[in-house]
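[recover] target loaded
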């Protein structure tokens, strides 16, 4: 009899411990801090690019007709406007079309690669420009504009510095077939890459074709745009990844795909699972694209940061900022947990701003 009573007593103790643990778990879950896309109702930005430096994230993008504004954050979610990182003046080569800035920290300096339009030896055109600053918030000043001129328009510059500190420039070469603006033709875009000199100021080799439209979702028969653009290159487990956008940025089906390579300049192989990020009109997601890749504050999670149309029914009403988790499968393939419009847990190692 005593043994039975003792067993019942022990069972009650175990049950009490389980109930306490469940209660604690419920409290823990209820206290998890979350965010919801779009991450801000006041940031209307396209082509987002993020630099992580000294525990602070710096956000740049296509945001102003006369240069580039920037924002800062400690958690990738709460962004503080900080004014202009770059603003044109009378000395700038570019006159307008200030697009897609990206900033890297390299050899104790901050460098901004961006697109703009100005006069060239071939007439007025879009080219890449390189600006420099001692601080991530600028002010950035041109050090070479245009950076190079091969006689064609190019946009969406991205500088990748490999583990051996060799810098590479990737960009989109753009053009048109027929008379595009009156809709008798279409735009096209292909991604090229080139190794740069150590000072970033000149190409060391002839540009190499990396990606061109091959998959149906990229607009192979579109009469608006057949393009690959907005690339980001990064490395994980000795594999080079290039995320890129396909189709026309005004199209709801504008999305993100990726390719992999064993070397920075290829050959690049596109994933058959593309696109890894695509529209979801019922959930108010249209035209998700032109992304960058960042890690959480504790470096344990990967995130894809991208823009989408602010209004799924009026695509010319601006673009908004989104952030979603990205994961690597055991075989090295990429998966985006998104696009999301429901509450998501904050990036690991971060807290909500007070």
């Amino acid at each position: 009899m005593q043994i039975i009573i003792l067993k019942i007593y022990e069972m009650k103790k175990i049950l009490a411990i389980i109930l306490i643990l469940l209660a604690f778990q419920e409290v823990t879950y209820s206290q998890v801090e979350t965010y919801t896309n779009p991450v801000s109702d006041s940031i209307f930005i396209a082509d987002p690019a993020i630099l992580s430096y000294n525990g602070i994230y710096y956000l740049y993008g296509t945001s102003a007709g006369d240069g580039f504004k920037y924002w800062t954050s400690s958690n990738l979610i709460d962004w503080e406007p900080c004014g202009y990182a770059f603003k044109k003046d009378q000395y700038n080569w570019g006159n307008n079309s200030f697009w897609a800035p990206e900033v890297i920290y390299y050899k104790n300096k901050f460098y901004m690669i961006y697109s703009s339009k100005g006069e060239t030896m071939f007439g007025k055109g879009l080219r890449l420009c390189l600006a420099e600053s001692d601080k991530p918030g600028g002010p950035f000043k041109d050090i070479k504009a245009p950076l190079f001129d091969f006689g064609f328009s190019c946009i969406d510059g991205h500088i990748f510095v490999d583990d051996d500190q060799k810098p590479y420039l990737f960009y989109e070469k753009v053009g048109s077939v027929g008379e595009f603006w009156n809709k008798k033709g279409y735009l096209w875009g292909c991604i090229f890459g080139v190794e740069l000199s150590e000072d970033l100021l000149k190409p060391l080799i002839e540009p190499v074709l990396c990606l061109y439209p091959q998959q149906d979702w990229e607009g192979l028969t579109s009469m608006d745009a057949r393009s690959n653009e907005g690339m980001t290159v990064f490395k994980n487990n000795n594999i080079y990844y290039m995320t890129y956008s396909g189709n026309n940025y005004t199209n709801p089906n504008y999305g993100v795909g990726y390719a992999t390579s064993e070397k920075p300049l290829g050959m690049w192989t596109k994933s058959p699972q593309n696109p890894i990020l695509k529209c979801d009109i019922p959930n108010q997601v249209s035209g998700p694209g032109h992304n960058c890749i960042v890690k959480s504050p504790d470096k344990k999670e990967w995130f894809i940061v991208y823009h989408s149309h602010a209004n799924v029914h009026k695509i010319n009403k601006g673009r908004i900022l989104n952030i979603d988790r990205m994961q690597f499968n055991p075989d090295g393939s990429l998966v985006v947990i998104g696009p999301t419009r429901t509450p998501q847990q904050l990036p690991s190692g971060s807290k909500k701003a007070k």
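[recover] notes: The chain has one domain: 32-345.
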